[in-house]
């Protein structure tokens, strides 16, 4: 088994055709929110799973392996930690 780009999940090579891989790797800047010059948050659907992808990019729109894709449940859990994280940041 091989790891698919953007570390979404492990799948067999035969499950992915070139066109599907290209579509999965392309990021439309209009669907992304910029965190900084090189970091973006993108909401996308992959294999019928809604994901929040927080990732670093290079050359404008090429994704790197540096990032994380969260399912909706993981995203909601992360959001529930916001007040605690803000509190800890104030202590620093």
UniProtKB/TrEMBL annotation:
Organism: Paraglomus brasilianum
UniProt-annotated location(s): Nucleus
InterPro entries per record: PC4_C, ssDNA-bd_transcriptional_reg, Sub1/Tcp4-like
GO molecular function, one term: transcription coactivator activity
Keyword set, alphabetical order: DNA-binding, Nucleus, Transcription, Transcription regulation
UniProt-recorded name of the protein: 6260_t:CDS:1
Principal subcellular localisation of the protein: nucleus
Domain Transcriptional coactivator p15 (PC4) C-terminal: start-end pairs: 35-80
Biased composition (Acidic residues): 14-31
One Gene Ontology biological process: positive regulation of transcription initiation by RNA polymerase II
Cleavable signal peptide: none
Family, similarity comment: Belongs to the transcriptional coactivator PC4 family.
An annotated GO cellular component: nucleus
Lineage top rank: taxon: Eukaryota
């Amino acid at each position: 088994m091989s790891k698919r780009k953007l570390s979404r999940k492990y799948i067999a090579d035969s499950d992915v055709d070139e066109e599907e891989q290209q579509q999965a790797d392309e990021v439309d800047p209009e669907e992304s929110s910029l965190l900084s010059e090189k970091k973006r948050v993108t909401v996308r659907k992959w294999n019928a799973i809604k994901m929040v992808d927080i990732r670093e990019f290079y050359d404008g729109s090429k994704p790197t392996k540096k990032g994380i894709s969260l399912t909706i449940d993981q995203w909601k859990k992360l959001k529930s930690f916001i007040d605690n994280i803000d509190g800890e940041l104030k202590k620093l």
